[in-house]
Hints:
Three copies of one chain form a homotrimer. Chain A is of the alpha/beta class. Chain A folds into two domains: 3-95, Udp-n-acetylmuramoylalanyl-d-glutamate--2,6- Diaminopimelate Ligase, Chain: A, domain 1 (3-Layer(aba) Sandwich), CATH 3.40.1390; 110-313, Hexapeptide repeat proteins (UDP N-Acetylglucosamine Acyltransferase, domain 1). In chain A, the strands form seven sheets. In chain A, strands 8-11-14-17-20-25-28-31-34-37 form a ten-stranded parallel β-sheet, with no helix packed on it. A nine-stranded parallel β-sheet of chain A has the order 9-12-15-18-23-26-29-32-35, with no helix packed on it. A six-stranded mixed β-sheet of chain A has the order 27-30-33-36-38-39. The interface between A and B is large, with 66 and 66 residues.
Amino acid sequence: MTLTLDELASFLASAGMPCEIDGDKTVTISSVATLEDAGEGQLSFLSNPKYAKELQTTAASAVLVRPDVIVDRPLNLLRTPDPYAAVTAVMVKLHGYRRHPRWGLSSLAQISATAVIGENANIAPGVYIDDEVQIGKNATIYPGVYIARRCRIGDDVTLFPNVVIYDECVLGNRVTIHAGSVIGEDGLGYAPVGEKWIKIPQIGNVVLGDDVEIGANCTIDRATLGSTLIGSGTKFSNLVAIGHGTKIGEDCMFVAQVGVAGSVHVGRHVTMAGQAGIVGHIVIGDNVTIGAKAGVTNSVDAGATVLGQPAVPIQECKRQVAIMQKLPDLKNEIRRLRRELDRLKRDIDAKQQ
Amino acid sequence: MTLTLDELASFLASAGMPCEIDGDKTVTISSVATLEDAGEGQLSFLSNPKYAKELQTTAASAVLVRPDVIVDRPLNLLRTPDPYAAVTAVMVKLHGYRRHPRWGLSSLAQISATAVIGENANIAPGVYIDDEVQIGKNATIYPGVYIARRCRIGDDVTLFPNVVIYDECVLGNRVTIHAGSVIGEDGLGYAPVGEKWIKIPQIGNVVLGDDVEIGANCTIDRATLGSTLIGSGTKFSNLVAIGHGTKIGEDCMFVAQVGVAGSVHVGRHVTMAGQAGIVGHIVIGDNVTIGAKAGVTNSVDAGATVLGQPAVPIQECKRQVAIMQKLPDLKNEIRRLRRELDRLKRDIDAKQQ
Amino acid sequence: MTLTLDELASFLASAGMPCEIDGDKTVTISSVATLEDAGEGQLSFLSNPKYAKELQTTAASAVLVRPDVIVDRPLNLLRTPDPYAAVTAVMVKLHGYRRHPRWGLSSLAQISATAVIGENANIAPGVYIDDEVQIGKNATIYPGVYIARRCRIGDDVTLFPNVVIYDECVLGNRVTIHAGSVIGEDGLGYAPVGEKWIKIPQIGNVVLGDDVEIGANCTIDRATLGSTLIGSGTKFSNLVAIGHGTKIGEDCMFVAQVGVAGSVHVGRHVTMAGQAGIVGHIVIGDNVTIGAKAGVTNSVDAGATVLGQPAVPIQECKRQVAIMQKLPDLKNEIRRLRRELDRLKRDIDAKQQ
């Protein structure tokens, strides 16, 4: 699709993002790129001021910027209060989302006679769907996906290659799971008998709400009893591990390599940054933010931001780090105090004699 | 299977877990659930006192509790010293373990003519078994599994979908590997030549002992020379990484996202909590416990519990954390000491003049 | 292949690694093993002095050692300045690298009619290659690999089982990707609208340079716009996560479970040890070394070595750790200072009255 700057401005206004054109309204835009990469026919944007100097060199045909940005060279600008939101809308408009291959119901997929597949399914060669699985409308299932028996899967679901869903798991509508992720494997459930570990049957499942998106190579344990839950609208990056029986609220955002142990309750709209880890059996309140690499060992109140290992409120963590850096100074001051005090005592003693 | 409470009590007694019925012996039980989820016909249990208040509201038909638990409402109880061990036994009795699909030797599996497959094998469509592989009796191999040449695999092994076993690896009896795990990939073996990295052939293998269970999306490097070993009875959770040439003892338990570098010797019955990391070429003694997120940089004596980054004995780590929290106080005290000492010196000077 | 010690010495000399034989020149060597494992007909080596005592017990037919090593038992030695480099060369000579199965172009692979596959391709059953993919000469592609449309793949590439390459990604020559790794999945790109997350189309790709080797179960996000880049000669271990739009230089070495967030610029010949994490939008200079488990929150200058969480230069990190261990002593000294100062003040007051 190709639009003039004028048409793009109208589109953005209609999407609730009014903007002002500063330059040639007739220039045509057919795609979006970064300031560094953009060329003829491409729209770029400046959101993070760190990249402002690239306005001097970009070859973009036009750039989305905030109203107050000053550019002292000829450059077509679209001024709007939130350039990032605007560029997102333009990307969806011009590029759309990924178009999947069309397989229909491939004759090279293994689909159980007892599975029920909704209309308009797009199921690739090399997919395996076991007995009594139910899948809603418009499913896109890539090669190498395995869906074990009695799973129930909603409408408009996309499963990328080599995703594995163990038996009896439930996926809501519009769930997307990226390649290689595993949903519903057994958790680490063993009873110790002497020094041996006796396996406890893991008879629960995993339930993913609507609009959940899971990154690549994640692992979500089934519950021992009951369900491991991932709330609607929650998004995971890659290599995330969720323990058995954990329940995660709606609209959370977990960055890569986050690990949450079993039986944790996570509220809604919680953000966990990369490589954060949460011990088992605690409660993380709504709207909590957990910093990168934080090791959370105690429950966290709603709205808090925690950081460090063990994780503490962010102000406390910053104070600890600041004081750590001053420790050599403190140590020297203690040494000076000792020296001065000893000298003073000696002086007083000397006078008294 | 459905049993009365009386029959369940007899079963538990016969399994070495005597218990006392407090309530209606004739109530029937057909499955197990958590206190929160349980309903009519279900047995639940109270092991962690944290959940005691749920005894007030559970709809379970009966609950396994310790002998001294007091419940002030009508509720059928089975009193036994270890309710968790008892519920595990009941789960195995009522539910059994996962029943696998029955494929026999699927005609859609690719099995080399030189592979030797034991009796009663259950090999799914889309499995690939290369030349000279040996597999024992009763194997269950799910779709998408790849077993490279000359692997030797014991009896009663279960490989979940998309597991990959590189050439010449050895799996003991009753090994279970969950979906997406990779056994025997090349480790990070390169010789530096200037700033380039020259690959060293990785000609060793991986050997998994009997009764090993590996979680989903783990990676176990083959040894450069010799074998990477995982001792019998050892259990891994998901996303665990083991480096080349590392040898891990029997009956260990590694939680999700643990990473052990190469050439490490880990003793028997070692527990590593989530996201722990172990540097290369060190020795971890028997019965060691390594805390969540610990960064272990030195060998650890048998029986020790270590924590922190760098990891230190747990008492020391706790002392460090406690003192960290007091640092602002200490800093203030140093400032007060300075002030008082300076004043004292001024006073003395003043008097001497 | 079998060679005498004399022939091996000639081979090493011709490879620029002259060595001196100390023992029987006619002994024959057909493979390489560790000191512990080696037996009749095997060459071993001593590089790390930690293992010197194994010279007393090894059953190797000959051992590569440094010129100054003293062995007081009969043992055939090859003395050379760099035994590790020498054993690497011998391993390549005797064992070569892994020989792959020969599939040719399997009739059980799904290859789009619009894909262009170079000569001498070796493509296994169960591979899926989508529309308009281009693959160079001598490709080896194992079962379960999925290559999405319009990917461009160079010569002499090896993709182990179940690797997934999303659409439009580019792989250079001699790239090797181990089992289960995913290249080009969508990154965590969402625009917040209230508490909901609106997906931003991820229209960039991933570009891997020549001679890149990626371990098992890694994940490399495609860029939102433009490319995520991995420079030529760079090597990753397993379970490494790279965020969207990150650019990594040539000849880097990343150990298992490293995580790099999005929009990071990493220079050339950078080493990241296991479980290190790098926040987004920073710059890591050339030849930087990042310690195991380091949490890097700020840009790092070329040539630096950083460690800790938050990461600081290694000297500073060591000083912090050392001082942490002395904190109990410092605390006691502060208490003593307080006591002595108070006593001194009381004494002075007493005398004044």
